[in-house]
Amino acid sequence: MRINFKNLTVQVLIAIVLGIIVGATFPEFGAKLKILADIFIKLIKMLIAPIIFLTVVIGIGSMGDVKKVGKIGGKALIYFEIVSTFALAIGLIVVNIVQPGKGFNTEAANGADVSQYINAAAAEHGLGAFIMQIIPDNVVGALANGELLPVLFSAVLFGLAAAAIGEPAKPVIKFFEQVADIFFKIVNMVMKISPIGAFGAMSYTIGNFGLKSLGNLGFLMLSVYITMFIFIVVIIGFISHYFGFSIFKFIKYIKDEIFIVIGTSSSESALPSMMRKLENYGCSKQVVGLVIPTGYSFNLDGTSIYLSMAAIFIAQAYGVDLDIWHQITLLAILMLTSKGAAGVTGSGFITLAATLAAFPMIPVEGIALLIGVDRFMSEARAVTNLIGNGVATVVVSKMEKEFDTEQEKRALSGQIAQP
């Protein structure tokens, strides 16, 4: 079988392997290549806010039925809450069974400075702060700063107003559709350099943290990876089967986006192309525009699994015995703190710090134990988040009868050109 080197998946895979080799062989040089990943991710993040704004406005504005918008959004939020609770619960169950933190040496955390995460957690979490973050000071500022939730909030209001106006607003929606096509064309151009971004990110990760950093916390890493695999195959797989599509075929269909996420360690890096992929898969533009952006703040399944396992791991490492009621309380806290976590590298620590600050039985300085391997687990979090949000979009589309089964067949057979 001949390898097609023009295929994006092949290019990203080669880039990841080369990144590991360069990072392991020339660690100082590899660490400096982070700039390549930063450039790629910054190019993608430059496009995310306007694409989300345009897509949501087009989706709601062209729907013309405000009640239907509320119905889709309500179903999506209920789905998110149920599935992310399952993710938190399965993380707690597995970490209690395998107990990766039991007997762990906590000396590595002594004297470690984790104040940056604690301060960030205090500033960014809490119900009042979360609500205030949703409402932007001004729409232009939110777009300029790439603030996902305020952009989403503004777009929903704009779309609802356009839908309420009706026919006179159609020319505006048509104009936005043309602008969105231009932005997605830019995305296609940027994605061509995704292998370079993946190479830089992997070189930096291996060069900066080293393969040896995986040793001590290898059991925790393995536990997290296995748990996320079980969650995708069993929980998400069951949901997919119930709604009439194969999780394995779906994963194969979005493989390009998965490898980009693995390479860059950020689920945001694949967001624009994922939206187009889902439309090509058969989901309506309206559902994609509402569910995917909302899911990136409210349906982070991978982050939920990681948070529950990391919190109990730290408790086990410090010998803190948590009974069933303590763990139920922790689960309730995690259900709040996990919402709104950014889909970018480093958000896990801030959210974990916020959780432990609200649950003082577990020493917050214990997050220092995870610093060395957090980067290696962030790929699994990001991939799980990506798959979870993709499946959520298909499920809501099917529930709303906004799904084209014939187009799904064409997409899976390769008859539809992909972005």
How is this structure best described in words?
The protein has 419 residues and is mostly helical. It has one domain: Proton glutamate symport protein. It is built from 20 helices and no strands. It has helices at residues 8-25, 27-32, 34-63, 66-98, 115-124, 127-134, 139-145, 148-165, 170-191, 194-209, 218-242, 247-253, 255-264, 271-281, 285-298, 301-317, 324-337, 347-357, 371-399, 405-412.
Q: Which terms summarize this structure?
A:
mainly alpha; 75% helix
Topology, element by element:
Elements: H1 8-25, H2 27-32, H3 34-63, H4 66-98, H5 115-124, H6 127-134, H7 139-145, H8 148-165, H9 170-191, H10 194-209, H11 218-242, H12 247-253, H13 255-264, H14 271-281, H15 285-298, H16 301-317, H17 324-337, H18 347-357, H19 371-399, H20 405-412
Helix pairs in contact: 1-10, 1-13, 3-8, 3-9, 3-10, 3-15, 4-11, 4-15, 4-16, 4-17, 5-18, 8-15, 10-13, 11-16, 11-19, 13-19, 14-15, 15-19, 16-18, 16-19, 17-18
